[in-house]
Amino acid sequence: MEISAILAEYIDDDKIRRAKGLRESWIDLYREAQYDGKVPHGCNPAEATRKPIAKVKRRRLSLDEWRQIYDMADAHYIKSAMLLALITGQRPGDIVNMKFTDIKDDLLYIKQSKTGAKIAIPLELRCVEIDMNLREAVAICRDRVLSKYLIHHTKTVAKIKAGDPVTVHSLGRKFAKARDLAGIAADDERELPTFYEQRSLSGRLYKAHGLDVQMLWGHKTEKMSELYLDDRADNWQVISL
User: Fold this and answer.
1) Is the predicted pLDDT of residue 232 greater than 90, yes or no?
2) Which of 72, 89, 97 is nearest to 166 (CA)?
């Protein structure tokens, strides 16, 4: 009760991250106390408290804002990545891992790094709002630089060589730069939209057209998620158009 009361003070003061850090430290403290015999085995009152949950403060990205950011993007790879993000609805980590060899029989095969979900997206998948399909977006990714990655550096700078894959951090940094150049500012206490918010925008656009967004995101069912996490399973879910 004492631990819960202390955590409640931080939560009420909107210091969620601090509350989470304290709770995790106290849980570790009691575990060490158990190992040293200072408290009975299984005694960990901090672990019995409710885990502080931070409310999402990042606001959604609108299609008009997306267009403004795209126009201000100053690198070929960030423009290509934004097109892939909007058309495929995938996470940044999966976008930077996309390879040209992942495309077979007019399908882009993606094994999502976070969930293990295995989906195959038809190259004919079209985002009506920007009048472009996945095949056309992939064609834009092809350039004179030899690389196995769809999203890659086009110039050699210091340790980075032309053709090397782009990191998620670089995508986020370039997106933020273009967003700021576009003059998009926070209109309330919520944080500005990040590169990741394109995933939500993509889902909202496709949902309006009746596409199975859950399958596109790899969130079919709990049972299917378990199947995805089994590396021995060779079941790919093909997105229906």
Assistant:
1) no
2) 97
- Cα–Cα distance for residue pair 171/181, rounded to 1 Å: 15
What is the rounded CA–CA span in Å between residue 227 and residue 235?
A: 8
Task: List the Cα angle 91/21/193 in 5-degree steps.
Answer: 30
Alpha helices in the chain (DSSP H): 2-12, 16-35, 63-72, 76-88, 92-96, 134-141, 168-181, 197-208, 213-217, 222-228
Tokens representing 211?
């596409």
Give the count of beta carbons closer than 10 Å to the beta carbon of residue 55: 7
Q: Rg of the Cα trace of the chain?
A: 22
CA–centroid distance for 180 within its chain: 20
φ, ψ for residue 116, nearest 5 deg:
80, 0
Mean pLDDT of 110-133: 94
- Residue-wise pLDDT for 144-161, tens only, equals 999 999 999 999 999 999
Q: How many CA atoms lie within 13 A of 24 on its CB side?
A: 7
pLDDT in tens, 7-53: 888 887 778 888 889 999 999 999 999 988 999 998 999 999 988 88
- pLDDT value of position 53: 80
- Cβ–Cβ < 8 Å for 147, 98: no
